[in-house]
Amino acid sequence: MNGADIERAMANFARATGKPLAPQWNAELREVELAEGVDALPGMVAALGWEPARRVSGRPRPDQFPLLAHDPGSGWAVVQQWDDSESMALVGERASLPYHEDLHFFTIDLPDPLSSDADRAISVFWRAIKRRKQPLIMAGIATVFANLLTLATSLYSMQLYDRVIPLASFDTLFVLTAGVAFALTLDLCLRSLRAILIEREAQDIDAEVSEFFFARAQAIRLDARPPGIGTMAAQLRGQEQIRQVLSSGSLFMLADLPFALLFIAVIAMIGGKLALVPIISLPLAIIFAMILSRIIRKGTDRAQVSGNRKNGMLVEALDATETVKANRGGWFMMGRWNRLVREIHHYEDPVKRASAVASSLFSTLQQAAYVAIMGWGAYLAANGQITTGALLACSIIAGRINGPLVAQLPNLIVQWGYARSSLQALDGILKLPLDPATSAGALRPDTLSGAYAIRDAVFAYPATQRPAAEIETLQISPGEKIAVVGGIGSGKSTLLKLLSGLYSPQHGTVLLGGLDLGQVAEDVARRHIGYVAQDARLVNGTLRDNLAMGLGDVGDEDIMEVARSTRLDTMIAARSEGLALQIQEGGRGLSGGQRSLVGIHRLLLARPDIWLLDEPTSSLDQATETAALQAIDDALADDNIMVMVTHKLQLLPRFTRVIAMANGKIVRDGPTQDVLRELLPPRPGGARSSPEGTVTTSRAGGKIS
Ligand SMILES: Nc1ncnc2c1ncn2[C@@H]1O[C@H](COP(=O)(O)OP(=O)(O)OP(=O)(O)O)[C@@H](O)[C@H]1O
């Protein structure tokens, strides 16, 4: 019974429950010493920061499986179901576990950042807030206390005017002041505690919510992603705005609203008819607030949309600086930028005007309520209907009703207007379809290999009418090495993405080993299907990070061994930082050829069952290309499938079969020799010319020239 034992059981449990664990999920366990036996589980769960495991007592019922089981004799395992009345089938092992009294069973909610039954963004925030009861309770207590304190200070003033001053009763003054001082100190402590707690929890909520949206954005199906990446990034950042509004002190002011009724009742008790002033002014403020929120709604929505587009344009302009500069496109971009800025101002202007007018209106309302209380109160006091102290107390309490709450309403409404627009944008992102890994019914086979079978597959990019790929039928058997050729825009890359499962056809099916790729869990598909994109992009980090990304424990020796075969070692040796070479966003810092080589290198480290390469050698020199292709050939197992898109005719003899595409359709498909015979014009004297040059297929009939 050691750490590895329980880790293996946990991996089996994850498999059985259909929730993938992160690649390095157990990295933090290396630092901790797990207890022996059944006590290992709580330690492990605590170290990983997961929800505690729940014990299942007695004989497990059929609906409780799968369960983690601990047997004092054989250690940890995962039980799947009852085999018979006395033994249970184990997950990942062929044996069964006999039931006995010393077995302990547990279940655990594995973390899944994407799990949410919420289809509205606001539910994600509420779920995170509701999970943290402590600050909410504290905020509630502090609110109650702050409001009671208002009553205490106003009654204190009343006593001073009515009892202490007329009678010079200093003992009463001392006792009252001590009482109020104590209440003030308590209030200070509670408020500070509330602020600290809210700030701490706000960070946790922020982490939870941003993890959810980040994971969600990453899990969106590639073929469903909106084209404006910068715009989408701005929409995702809108969550910060929402979080700020939700955790801002001004929102807690709303909790004061019910106390307004209590205050009005107290004013009625001590000031009689004076209660009419807040009875009129408070609803008036609320009606003004509702009107303001209606007026600004359209403006905030449109300003937010334009703001997000502006962010998208900024990202695009910075990303494409080279092209923009080289083509003297600076003025063109500047024109677009200025138009967007003007558009935002155009939409924001009415919001600003309405909020400025509302602020003045609210401030006038406050002053008017004060004057009404004091003026009418003075009249009542002069007539002896209320005391001077009662008048003062009423003015303090009425100030509390109309004061902070009403003063902050316009600002809060504008903030909420923008937050609401951000929520709408996030709702839109939540509606985008996800990779199959997230659905409970995703297939999780142990291996994903065998033959490909595409039938009547039609794929069109979003917002385009014409299909980019229409494949009536395509069979690929294990062991085949296929080249895909065709003119630009003929659908080669799209076919490769369909084979990778990154794109799903809108009609028809892509089967691999008899399984519909659209139903296979994303992590399983990525483990078995290797794909090098045409535009191999790298991410910010070291060269080592980029080479070993998603591959778990890959050592430097493995990396260097592969590097020797691809000639990447020459580049690594030429840089003093070696594998620690810092790569900037998008792979800046490496040449185009070096970036391609990193993509090929990654695949060689991953050793998938299916190798899909989109023009991987188009930017390599001849010697490096030969070395890289040889390394791939050497790494391919007999039953592996390789499909490579290429424009280079001279590479075709390396493949067993060639598929030629035109207009999204397969127009030639056959053994390399047969297709080459059709491609190459016969030389004078009967011999065929050597395969050189690039391959293009004309639109009509797919003739290759
Ligand atoms: N993201 C996209 N959105 C809309 N249309 C697209 C998108 N990507 C490609 N297309 C269109 O789909 C068709 C097929 O594109 P694809 O990238 O598969 O061609 P290709 O044969 O790989 O071309 P190339 O040899 O130039 O790389 C083209 O007409 C292209 O304009």
How does this model look, in words?
With 705 residues, the chain is an alpha+beta fold. It has 3 domains: 3-107, Cathepsin B, Chain A (Alpha-Beta Complex); 140-430, ABC transporter type 1, transmembrane domain (ABC transporter transmembrane region fold, Up-down Bundle); 452-539 and 589-679, P-loop containing nucleotide triphosphate hydrolases (Rossmann fold), CATH 3.40.50. Helices cover 54% and strands 12% of the residues. It contains 21 helices and 18 strands. The strands form 4 sheets. Strands 1-6-2-3-4-5 form a 6-stranded antiparallel beta sheet. Adenosine-5'-triphosphate is lined by residues 461, 464, 468, 486, 488-494, 534.
Comma- or semicolon-separated keywords:
ATP hydrolysis activity; six-stranded antiparallel sheet; single chain; 3 domains; Rossmann fold; ATP binding; disordered C terminus; ATP-binding; binds adenosine-5'-triphosphate; Cathepsin B, Chain A; 21 helices; nucleotide-binding; ABC transporter transmembrane region fold; membrane; alpha+beta
